[in-house]
Amino acid sequence: MKRTSSSLFTPNLWLIWKTIILLTLIFLLVTLFRIQFYFYDDDDSQFSSSRRSRLPVYDEDDDKVFDGNPRIAFMFLARGDLPLDFLWQSFFENADAANYSIYVHSEPGFVFDETTTRSSFFYNKQLTNSIKVGWGESTMIQAERLLLRAALENPANRRFVLLSDSCVPLYNFSYIYNYVMGSSKSFVDSFLDRKEGRYNPRMSSVIPKRKWRKGSQWIALVRSHAKVVAYDDVVLPVFKRLCKRRPPLDASKGTQNLRLQKQHNCIPDEHYVQTLLAMHDLEGELERRTVTYTSWIQSATNMETKSWHPVTYNYASSNPEQIKRIKDIDNVYYETEHRREWCHSNAILVPCFLFARKFSRDGAMRLMSQGV
């Protein structure tokens, strides 16, 4: 009996579909395996050694390999110029040029020269690959990483201190150099974030909640930790997608504000370095505090809910008594962990803060007149 074309087609069609389904299942299994293999182990949610190996290869014992004069890389995050450059001019004048390097991330195209800064120490210290930075956006941590990458190019840079354009030094160069270089640990303000709803559960496939940390963005890193931050390609993409600032209240949007305000209010630069280092099991190598002092106050406007903002120190508030109070602080209390961090450098009890912010120009001028 002659078979019709339709009877020949049916078995072939079924075979094709079986093949497609099988290939799809294989692809899904391989994808799930790669996610588990590359990102974290199910048992302890730590990076696997295979995933870490994708970072650029450096000498494992880099501190011992380097033979030369160790430097501190001073890395400034600026919106444009450096308004307190005259104070930093005085600071660097008393330093050995072999003990420090300077890097500035400013707006794209900004050049530090005799027309834009009063300090020759900053001439041509700007990054040529800077980006436009927005507060509360992942561009802030991208700018930090650009500074770290530039500073890491010089093997003499052994410590990496991140500063804002409103930061001032509280001590002379020699004291700060010995303090920072005398410690084998990084100074990173880091604590459990239990009170605020900044953690997005959608991060959990890469960032487990128990590794979520919060803290000040003003860090001082040893070289090995600087590399971890500068060349991370796992955690940063997650932050770009899922750690975003909640939009401010907008009266024109009416009831739509209720939906917008339910979004996670995640500030990337307050979580990224802390969380990344926790995921790499490096917290035991940290002094879990910052060396940059900031005073915070709670404020509110008609269009915003209450939020915390840093105090700005002007001429009146930059008095000797206030500066002494800051310099006398020798411990920090972390409420979410019921932890009091006594400030140490190389196991020696020391004042907590080397720098402070935010200072106005007249506040910095008074500081300089006081010989700070």
TrEMBL record:
GO terms for cellular component: membrane. Pfam families: Branch. This is Glycosyl transferase, family 14. It is a single-pass type II membrane protein. Keywords: Glycoprotein, Glycosyltransferase, Membrane, Transferase, Transmembrane, Transmembrane helix. It is found in: Membrane. It comes from Artemisia annua (Sweet wormwood). It comes from the Eukaryota. The chain crosses the membrane at residues 20-40. The keyword Nuclease does not apply. GO terms for molecular function: glycosyltransferase activity.
